[in-house]
Amino acid sequence: QVQLVESGGGLVQAGGSLRLSCAASGSIFSINTMGWYRRAPGKQRELVAGIISGGSTNYADSVKGRFTISRDNAKNTVSLQMNSLKPEDTAVYYCNVLGGVPRGIYWGQGTQVTVSS
Question: Given a cut of 90, is residue 60 above it in pLDDT?
Fold first, then answer.
């Protein structure tokens, strides 16, 4: 099993920045993809950004140019730097990994990000 612990959420004004971090522990062998999803009130969970072990990244169109995902394979952490935040970025953000032992999809508990206008 893989355990994920997120940190860094909070309240920020529009235009501000936040940095989310997620630390993986447990059976963390062969973690392939790490990423961040979010769920806004009344909406479905959506992919925000993902990064594979080789470093390639992908982003939702709505965050391109504003958010940056990074990972530290030695420390088994993934971070999301969020700049130029907008009220529509308000959501619960979830860390996600694919891999581990047993191989599967694992989720963090979520961290609230609120952007005020």
Answer: yes
